[in-house]
Amino acid sequence: MSTSTKGPVIIITGTPGTGKTTHAQLLVEESPVPLRHINVGQWAKERNLYESYDEEWQSHTVDEDRLLDELEPLVAEGGLVLDWHTCELFPERWADLVVVLRCDHTRLWERLEKRDYALKKIQENNEAEIMEVVLDEARSSYAPEIVVELKSEGTEDLENNVARIVQWIDVWKKDRGSSN
């Protein structure tokens, strides 16, 4: 658990297409404490923190050690929302809250098609969602009391989820006596 009083470190994770970035952006707008959103995949690309590009899967292979080294000082400051399709590589001590977004696989398939994902990539991500791969990663990597599974299938879910996280932040602040 981070010790920052500036703000919590929240990891928003889930299969591609579950709404991580949209949730993170709205959370930054609604949060009672200042939060910085980092879309980890985009951030890694901008800083060339990858080892290679996999043509078959049409994705970068991130250099995890370099990524963690660059994120460490930002995490130490607190007030951060990390948005990525995986969470297990982030040290347990970093996270105050881990939100795993879930989506019905037929809806997820449609979302990934709209992104022009290759069929193989859609199938892989859909299978990962059905098999609860990201949820299992979160549950095996972090204390159960900080892992929250939330349905993310539409605007109502988005608004309810962000409101729930904002309530969690209010409690987090109160527990730390923070006046932010």
Which features does this protein show?
180 residues, alpha/beta, Rossmann fold, five-stranded parallel beta sheet, two-stranded antiparallel ribbon
Write down the overall geometry.
globular
Number of domains: 1
- In whole angstroms, the N-to-C terminal distance is 19 Å
CATH class: Alpha Beta
Write out the CATH superfamily name.
P-loop containing nucleotide triphosphate hydrolases
SSE pattern, N- to C-terminal? EHEHEEHEEHHHEH
Question: What this model shows, in words?
Answer:
It is a single chain. The protein has a single domain (9-174), classed as P-loop containing nucleotide triphosphate hydrolases (Rossmann fold), CATH 3.40.50.300. It has a five-stranded parallel β-sheet, sandwiched between helices. A two-stranded antiparallel ribbon has the order 3-4. By secondary structure, it is an alpha/beta fold. It has helices at residues 20-30, 40-46, 64-77, 105-114, 119-130, 133-141, 155-176, and strands spanning 9-14, 36-39, 50-54, 59-62, 80-84, 97-102, 147-151. Helix 1 packs across helix 7 and helix 4 (105-114) runs antiparallel to helix 5. A hairpin with a 4-residue loop joins strand 3 and strand 4 (59-62). The two termini are 19 Å apart. The mean pLDDT is 93. The radius of gyration is 16 Å and the shape is globular.
